[in-house]
Design brief:
two-stranded antiparallel sheet; globular; 241 residues; 9 helices; mainly alpha
């Protein structure tokens, strides 16, 4: 995102995904470099800067929901893993578990939960949500509502994530320090989104309304998959009347 929002003369602001886990100091420095860049902000009063970059400003709207999404993965990954691959998440040595008792808490909103899941297992799945973002009309936006996407797809994502976990011997540090863990989960989220999009388009095509692919939704849609189909069909009928 930074490279598309700041001029080509700017310094390299890219951060390796594994450094989100192992080098938080670098993240802080790169963030400061981005925010102080002349394409992003301008000094106003002493150390204060005024943001004037639309794309970076829109990224703060994305940022506002990330703690809730991180907590959701933390809270739901254990059950999603058990459901998705028939495993026993609580038996993994690095996971804290006390016979289903909710004695652990999500890191941001302190919601009680049964699993104390290491950051090294949460972060690659969380990073995969990058595949749900796009730059549209100069702003960073979600391709689909991310929380409901996780509701529908986290078991499948957890099942896929079992492979890098196994390859690292279920060691969360090894998982989180391997760049492939992150790119793998970006690919899995892309596949899940493509599967949903293809299924939705096929259902629309079977609705008997010709030319449905020419219609592009501009308003905010409901998050329920069935509701999306119903709203699209209603819009298509209005379009061809």
């Amino acid at each position: 995102m930074a490279r598309s929002s700041v001029s080509s003369a700017s310094p390299n602001l890219e951060v390796l995904p594994q450094n989100i886990y192992r080098n938080k100091g670098e993240l802080s420095k790169q963030f400061d470099r981005l925010m102080e860049h002349s394409d992003v902000s301008k000094p106003t009063d002493g150390p204060l800067h005024e943001l004037h970059n639309t794309a970076v400003g829109s990224a703060f709207d994305i940022l506002a929901v990330l703690p809730r999404l991180y907590d959701k993965i933390f809270l739901d990954l254990g059950d999603a893993y058990n459901k998705g691959c028939g495993g026993k998440f609580g038996k993994i040595k690095a996971v804290k578990y006390r016979d289903g008792k909710k004695v652990y808490a999500a890191p941001f909103f302190a919601t009680p939960c049964a699993y104390g899941t290491p950051d090294g297992f949460v972060l690659p799945v969380f990073y995969g949500l990058k595949a749900l973002m796009e730059v549209k009309a100069g702003k960073v936006v979600w391709k689909t509502e991310p929380e409901s996407f996780l509701e529908r797809n986290l078991p499948a994502l957890a099942a896929a994530f079992k492979m890098p976990m196994e390859m690292a011997g279920f060691d969360p540090q090894k998982v989180a320090k391997n760049e492939t863990s992150y790119s793998f989960m970006v690919g899995e989220v892309e596949k899940a989104l493509l599967h949903e999009t293809t299924a939705r388009e096929a259902k629309l095509a079977r609705s008997g309304i010709p030319g449905w692919a020419r219609v592009r939704a501009s308003e905010k849609l409901p998050t329920s998959h069935d509701a999306l189909i119903k709203v699209d069909c209603a819009r298509l009928r209005r379009y061809f009347e």
